[in-house]
């Protein structure tokens, strides 16, 4: 890791932002991790179970833009504290009051606030760091995706020992701790963008480049979310592994994607995010095609690891480029791109399910994902010249390596 990195910005804020994103991601995935327990106790139908899993993901995606705009207007630290407060209230609601399907759906809206933390945590943690370290700073905070691991490991275990409602109470504890850390250690980045008008930040939504980033992130982060949520079902149904073992595959995807997100950010600082993404999409194409052959259990294990790690690198690379393109609207741009990435998470379970139902195999689900990676690679090739002659350097490196924090 770069020697000058830790001295170039405010490390307590970076760590606070990482912890904020980490516990929020854990909370966001709580219902998915405990779905079998909730479904059994509340006697949910398959469609109700699907809706229970859909609401937190959709709410988290939908709320990313509003929370990102709030961060631009009232400050990123203040927006983070508000998000954590609402998340705690949601956990308490789940612990004390949820006992029906309708109440689980309402709780899903609260969990969505945790999912929306993405649009605040990343610009908060990276806001103190210069342009040449944006990829690494964003990658470190983005590694909070590892919250998936904690949800997958602790939630089912605790639910099997205690009533599943108590898990929300347990999970509220680390959220409170992180809120206190954020309150006392984090500092608002010296960002001029916060003093811009709401109209200025909304202009980001109509920028052509933001929609290109949306598609690029749809493939990498959407792939990550989609595989995290669907891999347990795929492994249990296709390979007949136990539910516990299937859940461990969820941890595998979450861990490798989170770890390699940091690698992707740091690598992109060195070689450029565009160069990095070329390799990412090529590997995703071949990895998905390899998985479509439904190989042996050993081979699918290796392929899933490769896919998850590559998605992580891609996530880090995209967020090395994004703040360079929108330096005065980081929180808004992160919110917009993060929203579409999260919505992409619904794509994989949907196409995998239809593939199995219509053709009797999951192969065409993997092929469909490979096609989205081909489209992303094609678009990246088209915009490369324009990007590298206007706002970013050769290969996607920062133009001015001596820029200060935003």
Task: Label this structure with key terms.
Growth Hormone, Chain: A, 79% helix
Indicate the topology:
Layout: H1 5-8, H2 11-28, H3 30-33, H4 35-42, H5 46-62, H6 64-74, H7 76-96, H8 101-115, H9 118-126, H10 134-142, H11 147-161, H12 164-185, H13 198-202, H14 208-239, H15 243-271, H16 273-292, H17 297-325, H18 330-344, H19 347-359, H20 363-388
Helix pairs in contact: 2-8, 2-9, 2-10, 2-11, 2-12, 5-8, 5-18, 6-7, 6-18, 7-8, 7-9, 7-12, 9-10, 9-18, 10-15, 10-17, 11-12, 11-15, 14-15, 14-17, 14-18, 14-19, 14-20, 15-16, 15-17, 16-17, 16-20, 19-20
Please provide a written account of the structure:
The chain is mainly alpha-helical. The chain has a single domain, classed as Up-down Bundle (Growth Hormone, Chain: A), CATH 1.20.1250.20. Helix 11 runs antiparallel to helix 12, helix 14 packs antiparallel against helix 15 and helix 14 packs across helix 19. It is globular and about 55 Å long. The C terminus is likely disordered.
Q: What is the string of SSEs from the N terminus onward?
A: HHHHHHHHHHHHHHHHHHHH
The tally of strands reads: 0
CATH topology category name: Growth Hormone, Chain: A
Assign the CATH class: Mainly Alpha
Residues in helices, as a percent range:
over 70%
Round the mean pLDDT to the nearest integer and report it: 87
Poorly predicted regions are 401-406
Distance between the termini: 22 Å
Radius of gyration: 20 Å
Indicate the proportion of strand residues.
under 5%
CATH superfamily: MFS general substrate transporter like domains
Major sheet attributes: none
Number of helices: 20
> Structural class from helices and strands?
mainly alpha
**What coarse outline follows from CA principal-axis ratios?**
globular
* Second rung of CATH, namely the architecture: Up-down Bundle
Number of spatially distinct domains: 1
């Amino acid at each position: 890791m770069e020697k000058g990195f830790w001295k170039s910005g405010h490390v307590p804020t970076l760590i606070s932002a990482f912890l904020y994103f980490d516990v929020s991601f854990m909370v966001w995935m709580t219902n998915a991790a405990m779905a079998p327990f909730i479904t059994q106790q509340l006697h949910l139908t398959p469609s109700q179970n699907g809706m229970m899993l859909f609401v937190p993901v959709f709410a988290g995606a939908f709320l990313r833009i509003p929370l990102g705009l709030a961060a631009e207007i009232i400050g990123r630290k203040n927006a983070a504290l508000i998000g954590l407060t609402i998340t705690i209230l949601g956990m308490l609601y789940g612990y004390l009051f949820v006992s029906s399907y309708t109440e689980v759906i309402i709780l899903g809206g609260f969990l969505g606030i945790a999912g929306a933390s993405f649009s605040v945590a990343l610009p908060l943690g990276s806001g103190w760091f210069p342009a040449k370290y944006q990829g690494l700073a964003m990658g470190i905070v983005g590694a909070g995706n590892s919250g998936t691991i904690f949800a997958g490991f602790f939630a089912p275990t605790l639910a099997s020992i205690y009533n599943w409602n108590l898990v929300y109470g347990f999970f509220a504890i680390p959220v409170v701790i992180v809120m206190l850390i954020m309150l006392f250690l984090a500092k608002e980045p010296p960002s001029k963008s916060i003093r811009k008008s709401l109209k200025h930040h909304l202009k980001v939504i109509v920028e052509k480049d933001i929609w290109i980033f949306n598609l690029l992130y749809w493939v990498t982060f959407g792939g990550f979310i989609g595989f995290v949520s669907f891999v347990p079902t795929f492994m249990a149904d296709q390979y007949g592994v136990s539910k516990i073992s299937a859940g461990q595959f969820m941890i595998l995807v979450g861990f490798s994607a989170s770890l390699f997100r940091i690698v992707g950010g740091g690598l992109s600082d060195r070689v450029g995010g565009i160069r990095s993404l070329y390799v990412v999409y090529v590997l995703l194409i071949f990895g998905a095609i390899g998985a479509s052959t439904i190989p042996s259990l050993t081979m699918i294990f290796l392929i899933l690891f490769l896919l998850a790690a590559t998605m992580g690198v891609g996530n880090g690379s995209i967020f090395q480029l994004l703040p360079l393109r929108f330096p005065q609207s980081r929180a808004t741009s992160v919110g917009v791109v993060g929203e579409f990435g999260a919505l992409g998470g619904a794509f994989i379970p949907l196409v995998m399910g239809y593939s199995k139902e219509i053709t009797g195999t999951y192969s065409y689900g993997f092929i469909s994902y490979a096609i989205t990676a081909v489209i992303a690679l094609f678009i990246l090739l088209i915009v490369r010249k324009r990007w590298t002659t206007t706002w970013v350097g050769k290969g996607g490196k920062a133009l001015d390596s001596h820029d200060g924090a935003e």
